């Protein structure tokens, strides 16, 4: 007679426990155990507890393969779901084997758990496991086939404000240090420029070495705003001129408002990095084609002309930010990576174990968001482009999205932003990228000692194939991989996936309230056409252009909800749900956590020196998966 010691851990979530009867059967290379009830004296399977049971067999079962768990009703009580976290088996040979579960089990459900070392498909050597893996993958494909993969698109008191000051009263109880700073400084050019580096949309500005031919700005116009004695040509050469070109918006029909179409501008905003290292806007053209009705606005224009021009640039920027940078590039692409992984990988696959913590909340938040936020009647449809316009914007953006633009180090270089000072999104983002990359490299090298292991891993190749076909719609020009040939390629891709779902999402998500709550600083909706001549505007024009009271409250609430942090934040790198059995990856996770925590400390210290701290990429505040 030999004995297996079995530790069963029930989850800590509310109502995780069950009164039902639990039966287990253990399968090994040398045979299987009797179907045995887990029953100790007293209450079993209470929330947050671990029970220890003994299972006896005549002889050793050999190497353990599978753990079958069944749940039967306790008398006639109604359904009583059980959240089983994990089972750890101590074999008679003295080995402890982890069988992770981390899911709810309903009555009558039969759950088969895989334990031990993470394995790629071709490493399975036991007929029982090969068959089990095939069945598992067939089932996973049928479960996840219905979820929409394609990026089809987002989404879904009429009084004007009496004064700008009145806007301060909405949600007066909900403030952040940053939102208050924005309220006070929104008109200042230094602050305006800094938001293109450290605001919620740090992804668009580029170094400009040559003006686009359709940008009618001249030397004379901007000379007063450059260093004395310098010229635009000289500053372009020195690399001190930057550009936000919103041409992607050009020609997209805006939505109707009170029976009339709204106005969306596809502007050009030129910035100058001055000798004090401040990035300032120095010229704005609101439409792509130069004309008399499309003047170049300058900081020397009347205060309200210049404010209006900056507001239209911000309006288009806010729509690009929400639809393209936030929704499409993080939420929706994350959904593609997630669904493809759920369909392609067995639960015992090492990359499934690696990626799962970063997929945790994605489907949940996206499913809810489809109706309330992105749907035709969702909150974002209030924007000037509306649902159809934002959908078209995303369609255009997806066709231009490259793999390289999603890989931060390459994107920073391509935009010429390697050396621009005070760019904390870049500084923190590159460090985070590098920490994720070292961790992923260690895990990949451990499970793929040679490139040929990568090539013959069919589950992995299927994963990337589905992403290429359904996520990037088979666009070869995107540079997205269609398959993996080397461990290096794989490491880079997984780094990009984890960075997107953690840091990049935090950078574009967490500052929404800080920056948009104060509507004049960046509104999704502007009600009046852009100015076509100079000297005609007043504060009244600005109030008529900004959303009315009701819409302001709606948009403000949206930015509030989307920046909310929850009490159950799971920060990047923490893996409360144990999935790896072998010591090597567990050690790698620990090292990853140490690196993240020292980055967090460094950011905290750096922020003490800043007038406006940049905290969106502090690992302590980054969620492990897209959860909001
Ligand atoms: Fe988000």
Helix-strand blueprint:
Layout: E1 2-10, E2 21-28, E3 31-32, E4 36-37, E5 50-57, E6 64-72, E7 82-90, E8 96-105, E9 110-114, H1 127-143, H2 177-185, H3 189-198, E10 206-207, H4 219-222, H5 232-238, E11 241-245, E12 256-257, E13 260-261, E14 268-273, E15 279-285, E16 296-297, H6 303-344, H7 350-359, H8 362-374, H9 386-400, H10 403-406, H11 408-414, H12 424-447, H13 451-455, H14 458-471, H15 487-509, H16 512-516, H17 539-545, H18 549-563, H19 583-608
Antiparallel strand pairs: 1-5, 1-7, 2-3, 2-4, 2-6, 6-9, 7-8, 10-11, 11-14, 12-13, 14-15, 15-16
Helix pairs in contact: 6-7, 6-9, 6-14, 6-15, 12-15, 12-19
Bound molecules: fe (ii) ion.
Protein architecture, described:
With 628 residues, this protein is an alpha+beta fold. Among the domains are: 2-116, Lipoxygenase-1 (Sandwich), CATH 2.60.60; 322-518 and 548-621, Lipoxygenase-1, Domain 5 (Lipoxygenase-1, domain 5, Up-down Bundle), CATH 1.20.245.10. The chain has helices at residues 127-143, 177-185, 189-198, 219-222, 232-238, 303-344, 350-359, 362-374, 386-400, 403-406, 408-414, 424-447, 451-455, 458-471, 487-509, 512-516, 539-545, 549-563, 583-608; strands at residues 2-10, 21-28, 31-32, 36-37, 50-57, 64-72, 82-90, 96-105, 110-114, 206-207, 241-245, 256-257, 260-261, 268-273, 279-285, 296-297. The strands form four sheets. Strands 2, 3, 4, 6 and 9 form a five-stranded antiparallel β-sheet that branches. Strands 10-11-14-15-16 form a five-stranded antiparallel β-sheet. It has a four-stranded antiparallel β-sheet with strand order 5-1-7-8, with no helix packed on it. α6 packs antiparallel against α7 (350-359), α6 (303-344) packs across α9 and α6 packs across α15. The relative contact order is 0.12.
């Amino acid at each position: 007679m030999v004995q297996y010691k079995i530790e069963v851990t029930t989850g800590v979530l509310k109502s995780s426990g069950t009164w039902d009867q639990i039966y287990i059967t253990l399968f090994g290379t040398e045979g299987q155990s009797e179907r045995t009830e887990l029953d100790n004296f007293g209450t079993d399977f209470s929330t947050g507890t671990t029970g220890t049971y003994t299972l006896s067999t005549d002889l050793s079962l050999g190497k353990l393969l599978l753990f079958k768990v069944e749940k039967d009703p306790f008398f006639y009580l109604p359904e009583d779901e059980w959240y089983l976290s994990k089972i750890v088996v101590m074999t008679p040979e003295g080995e402890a084997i982890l069988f992770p579960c981390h899911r709810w089990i309903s009555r009558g459900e039969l759950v088969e758990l895989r334990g031990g070392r993470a394995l790629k498909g071709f490493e399975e050597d036991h007929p029982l496991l090969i068959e089990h893996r095939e069945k598992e993958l067939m089932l996973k494909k049928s479960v996840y086939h219905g979820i929409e993969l394609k990026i089809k698109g987002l989404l879904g008191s009429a009084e004007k404000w009496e004064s700008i000051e009145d806007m301060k009263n909405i949600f007066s109880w909900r403030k952040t240090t940053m939102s208050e700073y924005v309220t006070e400084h929104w008109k200042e050019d230094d602050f305006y420029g800094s938001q293109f580096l450290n605001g919620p949309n740090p992804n668009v500005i580029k170094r400009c070495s040559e003006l686009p031919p359709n940008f009618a700005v001249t030397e004379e116009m901007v000379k007063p705003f450059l260093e004395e004695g310098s010229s635009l040509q000289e500053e372009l050469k020195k690399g001190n001129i930057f550009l936000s070109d919103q041409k992607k918006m050009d020609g997209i029909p805006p939505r109707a408002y009170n029976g009339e179409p709204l106005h969306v501008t596809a502007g050009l905003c030129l910035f100058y990095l001055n000798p004090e290292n401040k990035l300032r806007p120095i010229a704005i053209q609101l439409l792509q084609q130069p004309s008399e009705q499309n003047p170049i606005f300058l900081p020397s224009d009347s205060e309200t002309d210049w404010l209006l021009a900056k507001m239209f640039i911000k309006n288009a920027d806010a729509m690009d930010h929400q639809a393209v940078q936030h929704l499409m590039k993080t939420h929706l692409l994350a959904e593609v990576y997630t669904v493809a992984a759920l369909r392609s990988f067995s639960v015992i696959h090492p990359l499934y174990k690696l990626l799962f913590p970063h997929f945790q909340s994605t489907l949940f938040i996206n499913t809810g968001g489809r109706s309330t936020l992105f749907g035709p009647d969702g909150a974002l449809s209030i924007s000037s482009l509306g649902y159809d316009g934002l959908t078209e914007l995303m369609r255009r953006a997806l066709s231009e999205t490259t793999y390289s633009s999603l890989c931060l180090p390459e994107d920073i270089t391509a935009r010429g932003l390697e050396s621009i000072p005070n760019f904390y999104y870049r500084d923190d983002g590159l460090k985070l990228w590098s920490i994720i990359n070292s961790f992923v490299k260690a895990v990949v090298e451990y499970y793929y000692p040679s490139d040929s292991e990568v090539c013959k891993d069919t589950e992995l190749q299927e994963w990337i194939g589905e992403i290429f076909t359904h996520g990037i719609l088979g666009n070869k020009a995107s540079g997205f991989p269609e398959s993996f040939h080397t461990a290096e390629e794989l490491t880079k891709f997984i780094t990009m996936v984890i960075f997107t779902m953690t840091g990049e999402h935090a950078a574009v998500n967490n500052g929404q309230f800080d920056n948009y709550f104060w509507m004049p600083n960046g509104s999704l909706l502007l009600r009046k056409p852009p100015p076509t001549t100079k000297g005609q505007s007043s504060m009244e024009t600005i109030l008529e252009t900004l959303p009315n009271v009701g819409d302001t409250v709606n948009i403000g609430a949206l930015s509030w909800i989307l920046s909310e942090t929850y009490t159950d934040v799971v920060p990047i790198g923490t893996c409360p749900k144990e999935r790896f059995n072998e010591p090597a990856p567990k050690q790698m996770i620990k090292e990853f956590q140490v690196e993240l925590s020292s980055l967090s400390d460094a950011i905290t210290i750096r922020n003490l020196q800043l007038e406006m701290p940049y905290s969106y990429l502090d690992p302590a505040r980054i969620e492990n998966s897209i959860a909001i």
